[in-house]
Recover the amino acids of this structure.
């Protein structure tokens, strides 16, 4: 027993000595680092971190990538620190995608694809695009891009391969039933469909507005004219999942739908007020606007203006309540910040901030139907919000 006790004591002594050495080592290192920091004093946190990485990081790293990441992170954090959920930062890397959304335009072949259980399915073919001209159809399954199987790719990777420089070719392989089809398509500038229209039973013109960015007014006014020429006796506007967009695009559409008067108000950071007005000429048909919790900004004010003038009823779910508008400031490295610089108000001077638009008839969708609607696969007969709107319009024109 005495021998065992002596051995244990020696083990404890060794362990204690090792621990002391461990602590001394890190104490010495702390002093070393502190001394080094004193020789290169910094007042900027990002520079401070860079100094430590440069002096002590053990592996190789990309200094340029580190600098860019620090700049992007700091810029994003600064915007978030304002506490405004509507202001945001766009990195230089993401600006191209951001502009595609803003301008409703891109370089491609004119198809929309989604990932389904069976693979990459074509869900839309743009009218006038290269894919339509070649004979690509909705429901075709995209199997390969320039020989690369889509089974090995994500949706974003597939889209990146399909897109490219205008005027260049891309070979797409599709499965249609049991048949395999190869198309060589020339990429072109594509204007995305923003407003689509169809005449429903009962002579109701159904117009879906995807957003209020560039080309919205042009396409929406064309859709309204198309529906009138086809004999529509009522109009149903669908701005569910519409993220908003440009004030001028929205005002141009409202001007065509509303009688003479104020249609929109804005006040900027300097207190300057601007009022947009409508002339006397307007479409005189019964109208309904469909909204949901994902109708934002211009989509909300579009619905609110028609509601306040009494020319349209609003059906669906309470909207999001975005009342600030943003201005995008370009930064020197190709990135940008979008800052809230003012507030919007309805024709009656109401702010929708954190309130939104209250529908005249509130109709909630189940989560399953909401999800199906978002992905564009909810049948019209199963869309309770749409069916309620149609019932209202049928009563008005009966």
């Amino acid at each position: 027993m005495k021998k065992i006790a002596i051995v244990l004591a020696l083990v404890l002594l060794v362990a204690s000595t090792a621990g002391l050495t461990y602590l001394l080592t890190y104490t010495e290192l702390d002093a070393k680092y502190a001394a080094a920091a004193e020789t290169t004093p910094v007042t900027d946190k990002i520079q401070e971190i860079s100094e430590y990485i440069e002096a002590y990081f053990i592996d190789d790293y990309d200094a340029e990538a580190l600098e860019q990441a620090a700049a992007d992170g700091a810029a994003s954090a600064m915007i978030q620190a304002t506490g405004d959920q509507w202001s945001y930062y766009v990195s230089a890397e993401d600006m191209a995608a951001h502009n595609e959304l803003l301008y409703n335009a891109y370089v491609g072949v004119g198809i929309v694809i989604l990932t389904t259980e069976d693979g990459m399915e074509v869900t839309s073919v743009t009218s006038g695009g290269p894919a339509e001209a070649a004979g690509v159809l909705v429901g075709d399954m995209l199997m390969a891009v320039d020989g690369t199987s889509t089974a090995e790719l994500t949706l974003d990777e597939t889209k990146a391969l399909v897109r490219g420089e205008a005027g260049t070719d891309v070979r797409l392989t599709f499965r249609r039933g049991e048949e395999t089809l190869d198309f060589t398509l020339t990429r072109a500038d594509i204007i995305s469909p923003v407003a689509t229209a169809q005449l429903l039973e009962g002579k109701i013109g159904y117009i879906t507005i995807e957003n209020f960015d560039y080309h919205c007014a042009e396409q929406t006014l064309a859709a309204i004219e198309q529906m009138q020429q086809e004999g529509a006796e009522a109009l149903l506007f669908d701005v569910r999942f519409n993220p908003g967009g440009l004030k001028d695009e929205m005002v141009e559409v409202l001007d065509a739908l509303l009688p003479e008067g104020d249609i929109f108000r804005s006040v900027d950071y300097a207190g300057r007020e601007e009022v947009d007005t409508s002339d006397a000429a307007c479409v005189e048909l019964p109208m309904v606007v469909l909204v949901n919790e994902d109708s934002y900004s211009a989509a909300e004010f579009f619905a609110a203006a028609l509601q306040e003038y009494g020319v349209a009823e609003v059906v669906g779910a309470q909207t999001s309540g975005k009342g600030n508008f943003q201005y995008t400031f370009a930064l020197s490295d190709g990135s940008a910040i979008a800052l809230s610089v003012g507030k919007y108000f309805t024709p009656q001077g109401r702010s929708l901030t954190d309130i939104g638009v209250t529908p005249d008839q509130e109709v909630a969708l189940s989560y399953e139907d909401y999800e199906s609607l978002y992905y564009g696969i909810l049948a019209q007969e199963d869309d309770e919000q749409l069916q309620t709107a149609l019932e209202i319009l049928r009563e008005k024109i009966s």
